């Protein structure tokens, strides 16, 4: 599947241990597996998490995937690429650990207003991969989204397999965009008649991974995998099941900031921007 280089627009089984993406329970996993050449713009971050090449020297990802971490190198198209600096959006603040326990409501309200996006500047231009186009419009809602990921896996009946790695083989899935407002695109894991033939959702470890929509016959980057949605007690909520929602950082909302970082050599590096604490 060709990508243009324009900056525009489970059954919980050990067999899942090398896979990625939460898939339909009634579709063979082999149908989700794709070769890396299907999306060579994918950038593997150290350990887990992903980003996307949007210019020869810039990768866009989510702030939660890089904040507080030593990101000196990423892997694109199988080649290690040295990172010159990390620029985290000034509106990003990590949640306090206490919010990640008990009632989900405070955490959901806090994360709703966080700017979860960051940029990685590479030391040398990438010459063997064309950057992906960014979607800059406002008509994402109801479009079919294409999702790539190497994170944890499972299926919609049983959820995520706790034994699967946070970086496995590349998988591709599809789902329809539920909503697109402000900072966020909302995806829902559909089942039955609403589901795509290869319906799926991101797993843990897919933070920063690409969500694309088709524009004039070409796939463009519409969002980056950011966060899960939950209600009730976080310790008992059933994540990664049919009906669950995933929130995606909306590229069209942040494209002015992305542009400003790429042209502004004085943008603050991560050392000055990735250490805020929640109030």
Describe the structure in your own words:
- By secondary structure, the chain is mainly beta.
- It is built from three helices and 16 strands.
- The chain has helices spanning 105-112, 251-263, 270-273, and strands at residues 21-23, 42-44, 50-55, 58-61, 73-76, 79-88, 118-122, 144-149, 153-155, 159-160, 171-181, 184-188, 200-201, 210-215, 218-228, 245-250.
- It has a six-stranded antiparallel β-barrel. It has a six-stranded antiparallel barrel with strand order 8-11-12-16-15-14.
- A hairpin with a 2-residue loop joins strand 14 (210-215) and strand 15 (218-228).
- The chain is globular, with a radius of gyration of 17 Å.
- The chain starts with 20 loop residues before the first strand and ends in a 6-residue tail after the last helix.
- The relative contact order is 0.24.
- Mean pLDDT is 86; it is low at 1-19 and 269-279.
